[in-house]
Every structure is written in structure tokens, then in C-alpha cells.
Amino acid sequence: MKIVADKMGINIYEVIDAAVAKLFGFTSYYPGLSLGEHCMPIDPFYFTWKAREYGLNTHFIELAGEVNTSMPKCVIGKLADALNRKCESIKSGKVLVLGIAYKSNVDDMRESPSVKLMELLGEKGAIVNYSDPHIAVFPKIREHYFDSSSIELTLENIKKFDCVPIATNHKVFDYEMIKSHVQLIVDKRGVYEESFDELVRA
Q1: Fewest CB atoms within 10 A around its CB: which of 4, 135, 164, 190?
Q2: What is residue 202's predicted lDDT score, i.e. its pLDDT?
Q3: Both 84 and 183 in a single domain?
Q4: Mean pLDDT for the stretch of residues 112-133
Q5: Mean pLDDT throughout 57-83?
Q6: Residue 172 DSSP code
């Protein structure tokens, strides 16, 4: 729905806020970079595999998985388009991924989509760093590894980067400082009210 809303010029966060005003029968879910942790990105596919043993297809589960796993590529596309409008390129661009835990205010990186985002940025030639106060050093995890440590989110450091994608919205981040001093922000968590198209320029 977020992708469709973007194409229509609709702020999905305003839509969700309006729906929350309903007195019953609505639970709010917010878009993000994708799913993380050890269960939701993996366990439904165990069910799909078992269903096949009985001659059944679970197309909806598989389709949901495809949409979720494609989200980091969607972010790369938005980031590339935004940089192009500034006559810049991902290649050799300095990118600081904000938050690499799979959700806010935790130190759990299992199946974190932020890692895939970092990999895709690296493949495009970007100089990739991250800032996450909950994960001081990038751990050695299955299939993914970066020889990297968390960049402290100071005014001096933040000015060094061309773009900051907000992948995980930890409460400790100073979002006003980021907004005031970063040239380009790709807001995947709806931190800024005006960023329904995910782009905020200082």
C-alpha cells in the first residue's frame, strides 16, 4: 500500500492516522524497510513448504514474502532518483544507514533488512557506514558481514554524508539535528510528517 500511495501522491501515514480514529475494528501497521527477527521472515515459509506436501499452494504467503524482500531494492531506487536530481550518484556517495537492528530500540539484528540495504548500496559503489547505538560493532552473522563500527551521531560526523536512509527509528536519534544538517534523507519509517514521498532535504 505504501508503494501505491507514493505513486498516487498520498501520504500513507495520514491515511493510517485517519483509520486509527475509527472506534473499533482497526489495528495500525506501519510500512518500513521490511521484516526482521527470526520468525516472521522465515516461519511462514515452513508452513508453505509443509502445505506443498499436501498438494496445496499458499500463494498469498509467497507473494507477501516477495513484496517484503523487495523493499530494500525499492529504497535503493528512491535513493538513486533523489541523488540524480541533485546531480549526484550512488557510486562513491557517502551513505550513513541509520539503525541496523531489525526494529526500534533493540539490539537484535536477526534477518534485519538494513543489512541487505547496506549490501545493495555497497554493490552500487557507495561508501557505506552505519549508526546504531545498540550495535557498536557489526557482528559476524550468517551470510553477511561488514568490517564496520557504529558512527557516533554527532553534528561533525553527520555533515560528512551525502545521504542518510532511516532504516530503524531508534528513539535516541536526534532527528531534528539530522534534518537540519543532512542534505538528503530517505525516511523509511515516517519520522518526518512531511516525508510521505520519503525524501527530506535540509
Answers
A1: 4
A2: 36
A3: yes
A4: 94
A5: 87
A6: T
Number of domains in the chain: 2
Model confidence over 76-86: pLDDT tens digits?
988 888 888 88
Distance of CA 88 to the CA centre of its chain: 21
Higher pLDDT, 151 or 87: 151
DSSP annotation string for 89-153: -STT-EEEEE--SSSTT----TT-HHHHHHHHHHHTT-EEEEE-TT-SB---BTTB----BPPP-
CA nearest 115: which of 130, 137, 126? 130
Instruction: Give the largest Cα separation in the chain, rounded.
Output: 59
Q: Is 13 inside any structural domain? A: yes
Tell me which residue range forms the domain holding 4: 1-31
d(CA 188, CA 174): 16
Catalytic residues: 39
Q: Supply 164's cell numbers.
A: 542518510
DSSP at 198: S
Q: Is the pLDDT of residue 57 over 60?
A: yes
Please state the separation of Cα 11 from the chain's center in Å. Answer: 17
